[in-house]
Design a protein that fits this description.
heterotrimer; A mainly alpha (119); B alpha+beta (319); C mainly alpha (214); B: 319 residues; alpha+beta; 5-stranded antiparallel β-sheet; 3-stranded antiparallel β-sheet; C: 214 residues; 0% strand
């Protein structure tokens, strides 16, 4: 499995769980949980592909994890920037766990998956 | 009137009586650098390629004896085994007086016997041992059994290269120049079946010698005769190995050849697993040990997931 | 071991040993050597040799020590007369050699006796080589060997020896190969005649030339 696909897989799975965790951390979002899970999964997929693509070009665990952190934090920010129906924003609740998901994806894509083939 | 010979002439005669005169003008012998039971090694100048080489000359008093056969066998074994851990042979032939010689790469370094004192840390020690094991795995794959592995037969080069030397008693599959029932090897490093003079010594005999070598690197002594005593000495060793490494040593030193690793490659694989922090075939782990290794292996992943869960729990708690 | 080999191989080291270690006067040392080898032959000393206890040359040296002690006691008791059979030994030559022998380590008697035995062995070998090369009509081979290996000097080269003998350097190389090989083979033959057992022969050959005898 190449690294972008691996990143998408890990990012997607973690995205599902990240979305589901909203039921625990913010139970009042239960009515919107399907939308949250879809959005979180989509975010995870995009982060996974980008971080996996980076990992296929740069072989460095530290750099891969930092890129994962930044990319995931950026997409989490975009999600957090969208206000809730009551107008509140969950910046910390979305960005901090989302960034850790980015770290995990960065770690996984550096450690595992097939690197780009040298022609 | 009898000839009177001063001391200097007596010494000169001792040297020139066996001084090798190589055919042709390509190699010019400079000085002897070592002597074993089978041959004497000289430094020589290869005038064609303008480099120094090592020339091993048979210690036989006259051409055509068993010693020449062993030297020829060694040269052929070395030529057959092209590996970074084995000295390459460049040339072979007969001296003007009919004795056998072969020319090989000159390696600058020291034997493991002396080098071991300067090895710092288990990782460096196992790094050297792993190279020896890989070389032996290659030889076994090519059907060659060394039969006399010991610290003085391992050379550590100036630039960290590790070479296995002295293949004079090596056995090549069915073509074996040593006599059945003849004891070959060195006490302390030879397997029990070699010590008994059994004809059928195979790759497991080299595995025993590898185990003895590792035991020696850890404890400073050749292994004792019984596994219990070996276990006790390993526990008391200055470089006391952990259970998994001790198990690798003890499995290699099993008195019964069938209880050892069958080939050096199996030993090398177990050693690589040990160095990677994984479980080894020589040691059956408890559930706790397995969990510990699993945690060590995936610790970053586990810590990241734990951080994520803590974060989520913290936010749930704060609400 | 043949008596001829015993006396030929060991009389000279014995004489030097008596002169330097026992500090016997030249004429007394001559008498003792003559008497010792005669007694060794008549009383079959060689048969008493036990190879499990010592090397042959050590055994012989100890026999010589005892013989000297007994000889001195006997001399004190009564002046010995003549009439003993005499071996044709070159004592004046051996006496001349004394000055050149550096007995630096007088404490190691066995070493001294060994070194002198080797010297005598090589000298016998060289003499035998000279005779055989001359008999074969190859005296030039011996003379080249003599020039290069018996009178070695740092500035001596194959080329300089070749010029001296009006030969090519290749001829000098070949002659030296032949002579050195002959020397090695002859020295080993002589060595075997001087030691008690095959094992001792193997040990001595290894120590002397680094050769492994099968």
């Amino acid at each position: 499995m190449n690294k972008p696909v691996l990143g998408a897989l890990v990012g997607g799975i973690l995205g599902i769980f990240d979305g589901l965790s909203a039921l625990v951390s913010a139970p009042e979002t239960a009515p919107q949980i399907v939308g949250i899970i879809i959005g979180s999964t989509f975010k995870g997929l995009i982060v996974g592909v980008l971080v996996g693509w980076y990992a296929s070009r740069v072989q460095s665990l530290a750099k891969g994890m930092i890129v994962g952190l930044i990319v995931a934090a950026f997409f989490a920010y975009l999600v957090a920037a969208m206000p809730q129906p009551d107008g509140t924003h969950y910046y910390w609740e979305i960005m901090l766990p989302g960034s850790i998901v980015g770290l995990i994806v960065g770690y996984a894509t550096q450690k595992y998956g097939r690197a780009r083939r040298i022609a | 009137m009898t000839t009177w010979l001063p001391n200097a002439v007596v010494e000169h005669l001792r040297v020139v009586a066996t001084w090798p005169e190589l055919p042709g003008e390509r190699y010019v012998i400079d000085r002897p650098i070592g002597r074993g039971g089978m041959g004497t090694v000289y430094v020589a100048r290869d005038t064609a390629l303008e480099r120094d080489v090592a020339v091993k000359v048979s210690n036989a008093p006259a051409p055509g004896g068993g010693l020449d056969d062993r030297l020829r066998q060694e040269a052929r074994v070395l030529a057959r085994l092209e590996h970074p851990g084995i000295v390459p042979v460049h040339d072979a032939g007969l001296l003007a007086d009919g004795r056998l010689f072969y020319v090989m790469k000159l390696v600058h370094g020291e034997t493991l016997s002396t080098h071991v004192a300067r090895i710092e840390g288990e990782a460096a020690m196992l790094g050297i041992f792993e190279r020896v094991t890989e070389t032996m795995a290659f030889a076994h794959e090519a059907g060659v059994v060394h039969r006399d592995l010991k610290p003085s037969n391992v050379m550590v080069g100036r630039f960290g290269e590790v070479l296995v030397l002295d293949w004079g008693v090596a056995s090549v599959m069915a073509k074996d120049t040593t006599l059945a029932g003849t004891r070959v090897g060195t006490p302390g490093f030879m397997s029990p079946e070699q010590a008994r003079g059994e004809a059928a010594t195979g790759t497991a005999s080299d595995v025993f010698a590898l185990g003895a070598l590792l035991f020696w690197m850890l404890t400073g002594d050749a292994p004792p005769l019984t596994p219990d005593e070996a276990t006790r000495r390993l526990r008391a060793a200055p470089r006391r190995p952990v259970k998994r490494l001790a198990a690798i040593v003890l499995k290699s030193l099993a008195p019964d050849a069938s209880q050892r690793y069958a080939h050096a490659a199996d030993l090398a694989a177990d050693l690589a697993r040990y160095r990677a922090g994984g479980p080894v075939s020589a040691h059956r782990e408890t559930a706790l040990e397995r969990a510990g290794h699993w945690f060590v292996k995936y610790r970053t992943f586990i810590l990241l997931i734990a951080a994520y869960l803590v974060m989520r729990a913290m936010f749930a708690f704060l609400r | 071991m043949a008596f001829g080999d015993l006396s030929e191989g060991y009389w000279r080291p014995s004489y030097h040993y008596l002169r330097l270690h026992w500090r016997l006067p030249a004429d007394t040392a001559e008498d003792v050597v003559q008497a010792f080898f005669t007694a060794a032959f008549e009383k079959h000393y060689v048969e008493r040799y036990d190879p499990t206890k010592a090397k042959f040359r050590t055994f012989l040296r100890v026999c010589l020590d005892r013989f000297v002690q007994n000889h001195q006691k006997a001399e004190r008791a009564e002046k010995r007369g003549g009439g003993q059979p005499h071996l044709p030994l070159d004592f004046p030559g051996a006496e001349q050699e004394l000055a050149a022998i550096a007995m630096q380590d007088r404490g190691d008697l066995d070493r001294f006796f060994h070194d002198e035995t080797v010297r005598a062995l090589f000298a016998r070998t060289v003499d035998a080589m000279r005779r055989t090369f001359e008999a074969e009509g190859k005296s030039v081979v011996f003379r080249v060997f003599e020039r290069h290996d018996l009178r070695p000097s740092p500035d001596l080269t194959y080329a300089s020896v070749a010029r001296e003998f009006d030969l090519t350097a290749a001829q000098v190389t070949n002659y030296l190969h032949a002579a050195r090989r002959r020397f090695r083979e002859q020295a080993l033959v002589n060595l075997r005649a001087l030691v008690g057992t095959d094992e001792e022969y193997r040990d001595e050959a290894r120590e002397l030339f680094g050769l492994e005898i099968a």
